[in-house]
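Per reviewer request, we include the raw input and output of the structure prediction for the construct analysed in the revised manuscript.
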Amino acid sequence: MSRSTKASSSSGSKLVIVESPTKAKTLRKFLPKNYVIEASMGHIRDLPQTAADIPKDLKKEAWSRLGVNVENGFDPIYVIPKQKSKIVSELKKKLKDADELYLATDEDREGESISWHLMEILKPKVPVKRMVFHEITKSAIEKAVENTREVDDKLVRAQETRRILDRLVGYTLSPLIWKKVAYGLSAGRVQSVGLRVIVERERARMRFVKSSYCDLESQWEAGSESFPGRLTEIAGRKLAQGKDFEEETGKLKDSKLLQLGEKEAAEYVDKWKALKGKVLSLEEKPFTTNPSAPFITSTLQQESNRKLGLTSRETMRIAQRLYEEGMITYMRTDSPNLSTEALKAARSLVEDLYGKEFLSATPRQFTSKAKGAQEAHEAIRPSGSVFVQPKESGLEGKELALYELIWKRTVASQMAEAKKLSVTLKIKLGDGTFQSSGSRILFPGFLRAYVEGSDDPEASLSDQEVIIPKLKEGETVDLKNLKALDHETKPPARFTEASLIKILEKEGIGRPSTYASIIDTIQSRGYVSKQGNALIPSYTGFAVIQILEKHFSSLVDLGFTASMEESLDGIASGEVEWLPYLKKFYLGKTGLQTQVEKKDKEIDPDESRTLHMELKLGADIKIGRFGAYIEKGELHASLPIDMAPADLTSEKIKEILQRAKDGPQSIGKDPKTGLDIYALQGRFGPYVQLGQMKEGSEEKPRRASIPKEVAPHELTLEKALELLSLPKELGLHPETQKPVVANIGRFGPYLIYDGEFRSLKKDDNVYKIDLARALEILAEPKVGRSTKILKDLGQDPKTKKKVSVLEGKFGPYAKVGMMNLSLPKGTVVEKLTLEDVLKIRDEKKKK
């Protein structure tokens, strides 16, 4: 390990390289002027992404398509993406003027890998120092400059091995799946395991058998106090509740339990409603609850999803920005430990804000429960030795919300436990026993600062209390109300992002830095969709898992994947040799290459394209070039993309097949054009169409989706004409003479004017709205997600459409007229030209 002297403005020029401009900007506050800080914009080189990226002299090699020389030492082919060429040139130029090079990329394996690649490309002739820190504060940066080290080859090798493994799995399995299922599909080392977990839950929902049961809900009164109760026993026999039924079979777990039917429940209501209740017992038990540990990556993603509605990727993007702005410590960690500095800061805040009685008796430390915890060495917390209070942070919107969440969780971890009293009251009514359960907060402790799952601790304290009056055994209580409640058992809940991350962490699948990527990848590939917060596997996702389970079971086995993560941890610690591991995995007797060559001859494509659903549907579900479809004999029909696999029924299948069999049925004629209007079914759901497709014409007939609340077979001509009226031009804006248009999109009804979108209000009817009302909405200040223009590039000289770069949900993006364009990874917005954007637009059009 090398050590540098304390940063000094008189010690020559030093080049410091970080990943992002934001991080660079924050670092400049703490380093002398002779420290030149530049951003690499993430990785400056990677494995080839397309065949065009492969160097010409290697294209003839059979292994070159993998980007890894599996025939000789598993050497990767590294290429510098075109968009990074300018950045590399700039860094080389800056390095020529420097006396020292500081590599200040993030402290995890990914950051170590970026530093190594920078060294390989820049080939510095000056001293190189690896500078690491887990927060961007003055003291942390000064300490990092004084205590530099060399790039850790073991961490680099572990990251490189992970990258090679992912490439070998993806590029070896995907072509096989293309051949056997459908073109363009893919498999991933970790993503496929995450997908399998979601598919297994959907299968459990398919196997689920619904059961019905009843219970009685009561309302009691003692003096002036009113409280609720539930029937728990009849004649000493306990009533069955939802938890007492098997999830899959619907059968009672214990035959001794009483499954109350609807008729019996009604009889008991009639029998008991005029009686008085008698107190059997009142039991009070004091108990305490402790605060949760400070956030690690997984728990931050889970809690921000539950409380703030943020996706995992949004959470990590915002947390990255907070870290780079110097507001929080490093956000990729699986250690809930707090430094001595953090403990002092948190405990000082508790005492100042809440009083000494709210402070825990001793500093609290927490240990990691995650398998193979190995990333950064501290929890995610506010940075520095004095935590900036949220209201004084200068942050806004989602950044403020996430920072406040982290601040509260950290402070609460050093607060006293909450003291509560649980109260259980049992009341006799006839031969039935009713139970009322309540709790009282004796001392709020940490709940004063942070309540898991709630945004307002003060308001939520009363929500946690259910007050039961103090009654004595033998006292009578008045029954004010008694009613029977019908229940149906529910299938296992689908995963949300929060619950999926929890299971991945528990099973040791992936690492803190990969959870957001796993969830993002399976959605972007169309294997999983979101309905509300629920993650639902698509039929294509089912097909991918089906072929992997049958022919490559180890690759989607949770235990096997977890053991791979442990091996990568072993490479990082120097306990496992990377090359023998890769050789065994890919070239061994049961290695991936051997398996794929063998299975290529064995797998029947038709069998792989047929989904083996755990449902009796009376028809086959198959995967085709354009998605899932139903096949029964000679009859085929597209399956709506938003119809969840577990929600399929034989009745729905019959209805879809019948519509396909009957063919397009006109529901009437359009009075303006005289063309027939049809109600049709497509892979994106039911829709109406004006006229039919003309032979030899590329022009599509006018179409509009049928809303979910409208049954296709009940669609009237009037409603169909209304649906087809959109998009509707309401008129020209009086100031600019540009059109104002009303339409319905993915997120509901909206207006569009001069490239700007505005959602309609709840009371506005998109079909009846007029120009006057539209102008009122457009005149209001815009709220919601920012669409800040980062750079105005003028107009497309040919089409005269406006060209600009905007700040989007997932980073900057370009816009040409109404067309949104993703920018290549690492694009520097300041250097982007009109020609660059138009080139991206033209390439997208070609594709």
